[in-house]
Design a protein that fits this description.
Blueprint (H helix, E strand, L loop, with lengths): L7 E2 L2 E2 L33 E6 L14 H9 L5 E2 L4 E2 L6 E3 L10 H12 L8 E6 L5 H8 L13 E5 L19 H7 L4 E7 L4 H9 L3 E5 H4 L5 H13 L3 E8 L21 H13 L3 E9 L9 H22 L21 H14 L1
Parallel strand pairs: 3-6, 3-7, 7-12, 8-9, 8-11, 9-10, 11-12
Antiparallel strand pairs: 1-2, 4-5
Length: about 375
């Protein structure tokens, strides 16, 4: 049940999501509220679709709180056949669209902790969590939950984050808030991740440029290079080679504004000069096919419902669908195996207080 308690910050009021599918759908057994409209049979879960209608720190356009629901609705129009997989989804797998995060929390820190608690049970290692957001501020609490995955096992240096984004998200703070969506990558590095690979970056500050240059954990493929008419092919090949040579567990975070603004015009901060849809597809294929790594989770964020056309949310749904297809292909080819016993669909949120502790420590430092 969606909570009636909603937190307002920066004049943003999180609203309950509405569900309504209009027009014809692709799945012959369409089930409203399910990703791709696919029916769910049995109690096991191979891919969990997790919705985070979170929006507290957006700084320009708004509407990400309604993004996950809009993406679910649009997914009913996505074709189920994937050429790389060679089958129609779900290809014998168990897809489960879980009840959405309830939005509980009386402060930003409490909401971040509750997001971590909501996600943590899905990092048991028995399925792929695919998270729909919600502003990019979901990334730090998501990674705080991911540290419990058996392949990470509390050692965040093992984890690589691959980030498709228009923005570097490496600010120290924005409008006085360290957990702004503009600081998502900085806070992720603070959590101790071993490597950050950024793709599509084309909007960043001088401070962020210095961060990229000085922190050896950060590898950035700027859009000015990969999208260049004269040198783009070489830069893009270098990007794909880097992804294919990654090792260990990977989290793939896809801010849809990493794609060209013409594909996602309703997202909060669309930027021209971004990735084409096929480049985003190549990134997804590269990380899932890397022989020495395992994608443990994916998020697609900054989704905003477009009113005049469903282009933005439909593009997000296609990107998410591609991630599911590549995960199932990795399973099929023996490159992904469950590392824990199947835990089923019913998973209770777990207690997390990391972000409240961080905020409490900051308050003590401010008053010292």
């Amino acid at each position: 049940m969606q909570s009636n308690r909603r937190l307002t910050l920066n004049n943003i009021n999180q609203q309950p999501q509405k569900r309504l599918c209009k027009g014809k759908v692709v799945s012959e057994e369409y089930v409203e509220g399910n990703f791709l409209g696919l029916p769910e049979n049995g109690g096991e879960v191979d891919v969990a679709i997790l919705q985070l209608p979170y929006e507290l720190t957006t700084s320009y356009g708004q509407g990400t709180a309604g993004g996950p629901a809009a993406c679910i609705i649009s997914s009913a129009q996505v074709e189920l056949f994937d050429a790389s997989l060679g089958e129609d989804l779900p290809a014998g797998a168990a897809l489960f669209t879980a009840p959405e995060w309830d939005g509980e929390g009386n402060s930003l820190a409490e909401q971040l902790d509750n997001i971590s608690g909501y996600l943590k049970p899905w990092y048991a290692g028995d399925c792929l969590p695919l998270i729909l957001g919600g502003e990019h501020g979901i990334l730090p609490p998501l990674l705080n939950a991911a540290k419990h995955h058996p392949l990470v096992d509390g050692n965040m240096q093992r984890l690589t984050v691959v980030q498709i984004d228009a923005h570097a998200d490496l600010r120290e703070q924005l409008d006085g808030e360290k957990y702004s969506h503009a600081c998502a990558a900085s806070r992720s590095l603070d959590l101790g991740i071993g490597q950050l690979v950024q793709i599509g970056i084309r909007a960043y500050s001088k401070q962020e440029a210095n961060y990229i240059e000085k922190d050896e954990r950060v590898t950035t493929f700027f859009a000015r290079d990969t999208q260049s008419p004269s040198t783009g092919e070489s830069a893009w090949r270098s990007c794909l080679d880097t992804l294919e040579n990654l090792t260990g567990p990977i989290h793939l975070t896809i801010d849809i504004d990493g794609l060209d603004g013409s594909l996602v015009p309703a997202t909060g901060t669309p930027v021209p000069g971004g990735l084409s849809f096929w480049q985003a597809t190549e990134v997804i294929e590269a990380v899932f096919s890397a022989p020495n790594s395992t994608v443990i989770s994916v998020d697609v964020n900054e989704i905003v419902a477009q009113e005049d056309t469903p282009l933005t949310q439909f593009t997000a749904a296609m990107v998410a669908t591609k991630a599911i297809a590549m995960h199932l292909k990795a399973r099929k080819e023996g490159r992904w195996e469950a590392v824990a016993k199947q835990a089923g669909r019913i998973r209770m949120p777990q207690i997390s207080d990391y972000f409240r502790q961080q905020k409490s420590s900051e308050s003590r430092e401010d008053t010292a």
